[in-house]
Amino acid sequence: MHIRKISGCTTICAALILISIAVACIYSRSYNCDNSLQKVTILLDWTPNTNHTGIYIAQKLDYFHDEGLEVTIQQPPQESSTALVAAGKVEFAVAFQDFLAPALTSDTPIPVKAVAAIAQHNTSGIICKKSANVRTYADLEFKDYSTFDNFIELALLKYCVESQGGRFENISLIRNQTNNIAATLGTSADAAWGYFGIESIVAASFGIENDFLFFRDVDPVLDFYTPVLICNESYINRNPAVIKKVLKALSKGYTFAANHPKEATDILSECVPELACTTTLESQKYMSAQYISDTQCWGIIDAARWNNFYDWLFEKRIIKRQIPHNSAFTNEFLPGY
Question: Which residues contact 308 (CB under 8 A, 6 or more apart)?
Answer without folding.
Answer: 221
